[in-house]
Amino acid sequence: MKILSKWLRSYLPQFNVTxxxxxxxxxxxxxxxxxxxxxxxxxxxxxxDITTNRVDAMNHYGIARExxxxxxxxxxxxxxxxxxATPALxxxxxxxxxxxxxxxxxxxxxxxxxxxxxxxxxxxxxHLLEQKLISNAVDATNFVTMAMGHPxxxxxxxxxxxxxxxxxxxxxxxxxxLDGIDRTLDPDxxxxxxxxxALAIAGVMGGWDTMIxxxxxxxxxxxxxxxxxxVRRSSxxxxxxxxxxxxxxxxxxxxxxxxxxxxxxxxxxxxxxxxGGDFVDIVIPEAERxxxxxxxxxxxxxxxxRILGATEDRxxxxxxxxxxxxxxxxxxxxxxxTVVTSSVEKNLDPSRAVSSPIANVVEYPVKLPSWxxxxxxxxxxxxxxxxxxxxxxxxxxxxxxEGAVVELPWAEKESTIRTTLRGLGWTEAVSSTFCSAxxxxxxxPQPNSAVPLGNPLSEEAGMLRxxxxxxxxxxxxxxxxxxxxxxMLFELGTVFxxxxxxxxxxxxxxxxxxxxxxxxxxxQPSRELDFYDMKGSIEALLGKFSSKSIYFDRFxxxxxxxxxxxxxxxxxxxxxxxxxxxxxxxxxxxxxxxRKLKQLVFVGEIYVDRLYRQNLRQPVVRxxxxxxAVRRDFSFILSETTPWARVAEALSALGIPELQNFEVGEIxxxxxxxxxxxxxxxxxxxTVFQATDRTLQEEELQNYAQRVVxxxxxxxxxxxx
Amino acid sequence: MSQEAIPSLGGxxxxxxxxxxxxxxxEVEASAQSLTSAEAVEAFRLHWLGRKQxxxxxxxxxxxxxAPVEAKKLIGQRFNQxxxxxxxxxxxxxGASSQNALDAEAIDITLPGTHRALGAEHPLIxxxxxxxxxxxxxxxxxxxxxxxxxxFYNFESLNFPPGHPARDTQDTLVVAxxxxxxxxxxxxxxxxxxxxxxxxxxxxxxxxxxxIPGKVHRNDAADATHSPIFHQIEGLCVDIDVTFSxxxxxxxxxxxxxxGSSVKTRFFPSFFPFTEPSADVQxxxxxxxxxxxxxxxxxxxxxxxxxxMVDPAVFGFVQQKQPxxxxxxxxxxAFGMGVDRIAMMKYGISDISLLYSGDARFLExxx
Lengths: 721, 367
Ligand SMILES: [Zn+2]
Prior knowledge:
The structure holds two protein chains of two kinds.
Chain A: E1 2-4, H1 5-10, H2 19-27, E2 32-38, E3 44-49, H3 60-71, E4 94-96, E5 102-111, H4 120-128, H5 136-148, E6 152-156, E7 164-168, E8 174-176, E9 182-184, E10 190-193, E11 198-201, E12 205-206, E13 219-226, H6 228-237, H7 243-248, H8 256-269, E14 274-275, E15 280-283, H9 285-290, E16 297-300, H10 301-308, H11 319-328, E17 332-333, E18 338-343, E19 358-367, H12 378-389, H13 411-423, E20 427-428, E21 434-435, H14 437-443, E22 451-452, E23 463-464, H15 469-481, E24 487-498, E25 503-514, E26 519-520, H16 531-542, E27 550-553, E28 566-576, E29 579-587, H17 589-594, E30 601-606, H18 608-611, E31 630-639, H19 644-653, E32 659-669, E33 680-689, H20 698-714, E34 718-719
Parallel strand pairs in A: 4-7, 20-24
Antiparallel strand pairs in A: 1-3, 2-3, 5-13, 5-14, 5-15, 6-13, 7-10, 8-9, 10-11, 11-12, 16-19, 17-19, 18-19, 21-23, 22-23, 24-25, 25-30, 27-28, 28-29, 29-30, 31-33, 31-34, 32-33
Helix pairs in contact in A: 3-11, 5-8, 10-12, 11-12
Chain B: H1 14-31, H2 38-49, H3 55-66, H4 69-94, H5 99-104, E1 115-116, H6 123-137, E2 141-142, E3 148-150, H7 151-154, E4 187-189, H8 195-203, E5 208-217, E6 229-239, H9 244-259, E7 265-272, E8 275-284, E9 301-310, H10 312-319, E10 331-338, H11 339-347, H12 360-363
Parallel strand pairs in B: 2-5
Antiparallel strand pairs in B: 3-4, 5-6, 6-10, 7-8, 8-9, 9-10
């Protein structure tokens, strides 16, 4: 919206602030001046952006009122002078047949007018605003809209057949509007009609047949108040967004029509003509009660102080400042204060309540201005006071506080997951919350538990993700497509299960990797990531949580119990204290092919909600032995179908406290060495024996070694020579 | 020096022997002066200790042959000393910690080091944690809530009127098949983190201080600055006597903590359904100090937060479950900010979709 500073000044006789300063001060009060353009001797042009709730400020007078309130200046009233009316036999017949749609309608007849070019102030200001001049009558209505924000309409009276009716359009009724388009009306449209036909869509646009032409000699000036909802619906229905509809649909000033009518009439009459008969003004009391005669609201300065706090002078908002602002904005602050006695509790906890002195709250009834339908409650007045006083003139204070900071129960666990994985080389990523229906079906832990969106952004994003794994695969694919071949990512996010009636949200963790281990540099050969790299990270991660047992297993490939997206021979389930906390491994080759992944990909999902049931592991120090540790290596030949887990179980079952540690040193298959029989492996078992209270003797060690060998032999192993 | 003459002994007295051996020791020292190459070391060793023609052997053979029996022991002792001296010279020229050996072990230290890469922190998560930490230091606890919300929590209880444009499916992503449910029970992707304000207040009486980080969604077409997925941080403080000046002071302090103590804030009137008075907050540009740069569009200021005093109507909704939220007795403020925008500004990210791409080239810059 364009505003002329010169026009504003015409309403402000004492105004002596520069245009720049005014622009800044208005902007800081929510009346945003987006640009200031210098017009030389003609002042400035402000490009303004007025928020939709402030329809009253979408005109020069409204902004002048803001300025007058900010600076505490006088604002000239709008009272155009009109010549005496030439008497008529009777007032022009007007009837409001749809009072729920039209709250007020005024009509003034102008006779023997001269349709000509606008001159004087109208022409001058239109020129500065680069607004096209049409004719004095049409320009007058536009000028008044810009001046005081109230849309009016001028009809060629000689084209009007009989009295004016404000009625709902008839179903299928036709009207050619000013833009030359033939429109079919709807019973929800309010029309200004004569006895024969519709003349205008009320508050939206006038009709073609009654428009002002150079031949027009008699005019009917309409200034009215239409129901905002009705105008909004008509504007939407006919795809007709006009200056008039913009204002009416946001709630125009109920008391403006007589002033607007007089202003329009006075401008048209400058070129000649007279007023024909008495001014007609029909007011629907019900509409007036909802607008101009809304009940006063009780306002207490102490409430403004309670909400707004300390001002720059540390006093808080004073009664005189509050009254000056409210009055400036058009409120009437009554002198008849009511004293409401209220005991103000100074503490929320009754057991600690301080018996405070009874406070007297002084409430003033405040009558609200007809042009501010956005003001309804005491808090609205408080906001106006803060706004006009200036937000930045309040002090910066900090509230006192007696509560404690409570951490989310899983905050530290979540942070442990992040730091552990990052330390192991995994980079955090964030992917879409949505996935395709195909991915939802393929990756949901339970069938038919994925939840669809009603208005998805695309088919690819039609479902709430039931798993993070598909998003992870998408990210890995993106990297491979961009020739990033070595990637290790994780994502912590929410997964969704249930139905469109009830959606359950759980935190989840996905990890995905492809390519080489991130060991960069020319000093050692790089190596492709494998299953065990991912398993190692998961072991480290699970090891951060306290547990009695952590193990990894897998279900047979034909059991259907492993996720179908994992390679059945190269994937595992992770179990902590008996609870499944996730699955991971090499991506199923079929899935890899479907996604056109050009290299091996490893992916896993950890159900962190289950992991969060475990506490974080608290390190407990074991006493260090002063006695010598003895290392013994054993080389066994074992069937390749004997899993290491069974060897480890057997060794643990020996219950030798001095067996401090055992691990796999090396595994050779029959392909690696001719010394390994077909279908077998050679396993180098490294053991460490140590006692906390003595140096181990050779006989003891011999005994332990024999027991180790026997245990492995029971699994079909043979000690290599 | 291979064929030098064998010196003659001036007698077998200890003094004469000492003098002769001192001369030899001197000769050893002299010839050990230039043991700077492997060849020189080998030549020195052969010259003195060569098995057949080594000088030590030649001299000892010559001297011991003609020596009287009682002098042989004395001469033998001195030869041993001399041999030890030669070996010591050899050791210091060729041993593991000798200059030569150390030089031979020298490596090219200008080659790059071996990187055991650390994973990178996601810029959004990092920004979110840093901002949350600022408020935690100010006594705020972290609150969270579901990403799928009901219309009641996302809109109604936050004082959005029924016809509000935000409720349109053009703006909000909704769960399928909600039409038959009452409006307030319909499920949607939360469009802001503000529902957690209501959920928190329903669960605990005042005082409340929470900071709410979270993922939110809107039905927005993606471009460089818009994403249907983004992150917000919301804050809520409710107590007796919490004022607008407290809101100003809290955000001014928090912005100084986050962006640096020289940052200034200024507040503009704004409108949000769930706060009144409402404000937009600008901070003086932390990148140019307010002089004007690309990041602040040359204005010196950056709009960063929306905030306001909790609207009494919102307390009204909460009172249905927690009567202690009497808007005549308590008051509060709420604020919210977009994490994506802050992260993008802070790290110079020009395209929001990078944050949600998983592009390792982008993410690894934050390691
Ligand atoms: Zn800047």
